User: What shape does this take?
Amino acid sequence: MRGDSRLSRMLHVLIHLGRRSEPATSELIAKMLNTNPVVVRRTMAGLRERGYVQSEKGHGGGWTLTKSLDEISLLDVYEALERPELFCLVSASDHAGCLVEISVNEALEDARREAEALLLSRFATLKLSDIADNFDRRLEMLGLSSGAQGFET
Assistant: This one.
């Protein structure tokens, strides 16, 4: 099973959008993410539907935040992305009637559910502003300014 980086990528984009004074086009975001603008628009659609971003067409258009970074949690973004799989563990189904396999699968599924609940509760407490603040601290430690508006970082 392939990993899903949409959550990480959209958190990255949203923090950049929070730092910009002008909209960012799908093309600019796509270049930063090394992907296609259509993929950006499709992925950002869930965030737009939830009211976290808006998009304007035409010259001077692009994506902007509609809420501040401290109003958006990791859980909000995760849910806007339609809750991508958090874990790649899957149960075996080679011997569906085997009581050992059934017991193993049950134990793994119970542990996965508990871990997912814990992770999602943590996502709910983390705001995008927390991540942006961490970024600012790292810049400060390097003696750099946080005034960068681009999508190059």
